[in-house]
Design brief:
Elements lengths: L1 E6 L7 H13 L4 E6 L18 E5 L4 H12 L7 E4 L2 H14 L4 E5 L8 H13 L2 E4 L2 H6 L4 H4 L3 E3 L6 H10 L10 E6 L8 H8 L6 E6 L5 H10 L6 E5 L3 H9 L3 E4 L8 H8 L4 E4 L2 H7 L6 E3 L3 H14 L8 H7 L2 H25 L1
Parallel strand pairs: 1-2, 1-4, 2-3, 4-5, 5-6, 6-7, 8-9, 8-11, 9-10, 11-12, 12-13
Length: 368
């Protein structure tokens, strides 16, 4: 199978790359991927995995729309023998979907990674058009699926939910190969992971941290257009010795940092289903997250997960409470994650979807 995948970026934290391309090329030996990226690759070390040899081709357009369109046309008309097209963001996907309808007859899959209310009007229009053109529309969480309830009558035969999962085998192999085990440092270590963009709401976390009286260090993994603004806030609030911007790092390094953390935090305003949070829970990290639909969906399975509304005083109080008790408490959630949020199960479901779509297209081609 040869998948033509469409996404805005490739990075160590992007789901289309980590949860789909990397995992599938490692697990499915006869699968290949051509990856068309509208923006750029923000961490080229992610492309060094041995499973990519001769199985992955990628094309980056550096936010150049004409380059993106020409690349899509060239790839679609070059007889690459694509089995299907899989898009992950509305704008870039819509362009390729339209071109695919003009130049090919390749089946199309579209992934919805967020809830309806979190898409601005322009993206809702693009989404609607993507839904019309796609053969199958897959939601990464039940909360995302339910948020599109008003569109169900129009696309009910296309809609399906496949819950996001954790690459458990990759984590276990890394820990085993490096002989890593859970350890607690004397200093209270907080880890948060995600792009430095408004959605991830890192500014709220920094406002909470400036009120903290105990000694801590906070490691922020990810890059984005708010980096300069967040760095200035840190400097102006005397947090420079406590808050460390780590940028994009290989995913394996994320695992070791989560393993040795005192607390994982997500203050996102919205998510599809957060992979980093699931990874932290698999590694039995104490975890604190914002009270949003997707985090509540995780909490339905992992009851110990702590959720708070966006109130600085409540977060400050809870962080202080966790600090005072963290050395004495344990947090066990790996078995729950393995049972409910496994990437092997997730990608097995995607494989079934891919195969069903291809069977239908082959049947139509032969008999109709």
């Amino acid at each position: 199978m040869h998948i033509f995948r469409i996404s805005n970026i490739i990075s160590s934290t992007s789901a289309p790359f980590n949860s789909f391309t990397l995992h599938r090329l490692r697990k499915y030996k006869n699968e290949y991927c051509t990856f068309l990226v509208y923006d750029n690759i923000y961490d080229k070390s992610v492309l060094k995995h041995s499973c990519f040899k001769d199985k992955l081709r990628y094309y980056c357009c550096r936010r150049n729309l004409l380059s993106f369109v020409f690349s899509a046309v060239r790839l679609l008309t070059a007889k690459k023998d694509f089995s299907l097209i899989h898009g992950h963001q509305p704008g870039s996907s819509l362009i390729v979907f339209i071109l695919a309808k003009i130049f090919t007859n390749i089946p199309i899959v579209y992934n919805v990674h967020n809830n309806f209310t979190n898409f601005p009007f322009s993206k809702r229009v693009s989404l609607f058009l993507c839904f019309i053109l796609a053969n199958k529309i897959i939601f990464v969480s039940n909360s995302a699926f339910k948020s599109f309830i008003n569109w169900h009558p129009l696309f009910k035969n296309k809609f399906q939910t496949v819950i996001n999962g954790v690459d458990i085998e990759r984590i276990d192999n890394y820990l085993k190969n490096h002989n890593l085990k859970k350890s607690y440092k004397k200093k209270f270590k907080i880890v948060t992971i995600g792009r430095l963009v408004p959605q991830k709401n890192i500014i709220f976390l920094l406002k909470v941290l400036r009120n903290i009286k105990f000694d801590f260090e906070c490691h922020i993994f990810g890059t984005g257009n708010l980096h300069a603004e967040l760095l200035l806030f840190v400097e102006n609030n005397n947090l420079s010795s406590k808050v460390i911007f780590r940028g994009n790092v290989p995913r394996d390094m994320i695992y070791s940092n989560l393993l040795n953390s005192s607390l994982y935090i997500s203050v996102a305003k919205y998510e599809g289903l957060p992979i980093a949070l699931l990874e932290s829970l698999y590694l039995n990290c104490h975890s604190l997250a914002s009270n949003i639909d997707s985090h509540n969906e995780v909490k339905n399975s992992v009851h110990k997960l702590l959720l708070l509304d966006f109130n600085e005083k409540e977060w400050t109080s809870k962080l202080t409470s966790i600090f005072n008790s963290h050395a004495k408490s344990t947090f066990e959630s790996s078995l729950i994650i393995k049972e409910h949020f496994s990437m092997d199960i997730m990608q097995s479901n995607y494989t079934k979807i891919y195969q069903n779509i291809l069977y239908i297209f082959i049947y139509i081609y032969i008999y109709i």
